[in-house]
Write a structure and sequence with these properties.
The protein contains ten helices and nine strands. It has 249 residues and is an alpha/beta fold.
Length: 249
């Protein structure tokens, strides 16, 4: 589904991701893990084109309109005066557009999605009145109606209660069973081991990328932490010409 070739993403010429190569198989379910500042969110943003690449390339076997991206909850503006129904409706934007009439079938899809996340009857509620867990359920309902082939989730279970987390993990498993490709930034190591068959351990570079049982070893986790502790944000800038020369070598 996705191939990364020597991917480097930089902020002010300092690499947030450094020479990442590898691939996500079609239909795979992968947790992206690593210390704070390891480049996990940066990776997802580079995949959807929010952040430009400093060097390298990303190849995708899916069109942009078949990609769904859920950012961190802190990046979602809940002050905008929109109802739960309209928020979920935005998931159909690529196929319905701004002016098409809401059909009975489409309304039924939205109501079914809200039922799937346990929010039936919430259609008219302003999103600003929802709890963190309820808002995350709304965002997952929007992903349901979007019906994407590739789903990118940035810390989807952060700051939500256990009941909500279990409900959302059930949907993630459902997507995996439907052969959709799901990539999620996850902090809880127990969740990664229990629910995610594959894992990518980052520390700005790839520490390990394989089946979860191979990646989530004490040795790999210790190495990632050691690399994080050794980071020097005042280090010399990383130039793409240098990167290209290293690749050629």
């Amino acid at each position: 589904m996705i191939a990364l070739n020597n991917l480097t993403v930089s902020y002010r010429h300092h690499p947030a991701l450094h020479h990442i190569s590898g691939s996500f198989a079609k239909g795979s379910l992968t947790a992206v893990v690593g210390p704070n500042g390891a480049g996990k969110s940066t990776l997802l943003k580079s995949l959807v084109g929010v952040l430009p690449l400093a060097s390298g390339a990303v190849s995708m076997a899916v069109s942009r309109d078949r990609i769904a991206y859920l950012p961190q909850a802190s990046e979602i503006d809940r002050s905008f005066p929109i109802t739960v129904f309209d928020c979920v409706l935005l998931g159909t934007w690529s196929t319905v557009g701004p002016w098409r009439r809401i059909s009975r079938q489409l309304r039924g899809r939205i109501e079914a999605a809200l039922h799937s996340v346990g929010l039936e009857g919430f259609e008219a509620r302003p999103v600003g009145t929802l709890s963190s867990g309820q808002m995350q359920r709304v965002m997952f309902a929007r992903l349901l109606v979007q019906d994407a082939e590739l789903i990118l989730l940035d810390e989807p279970f952060n700051a939500v209660d256990t009941k909500t987390t279990q409900a959302l993990l059930k949907l993630v498993r459902q997507w995996h069973g439907e052969q959709r490709t799901v990539i999620a930034v996850v902090h809880d190591e127990a969740q990664v081991r229990e629910f995610f068959p594959d894992a990518l351990l980052l520390a700005r570079e790839v520490v390990a990328w394989d089946h979860t049982s191979i990646v989530m070893t004490d040795a790999n986790l210790l190495r990632a932490r050691s690399m994080a502790e050794a980071w020097d944000d005042q280090a010399a800038e990383c130039h793409t010409d240098d990167a290209a020369a290293g690749l050629a070598a």
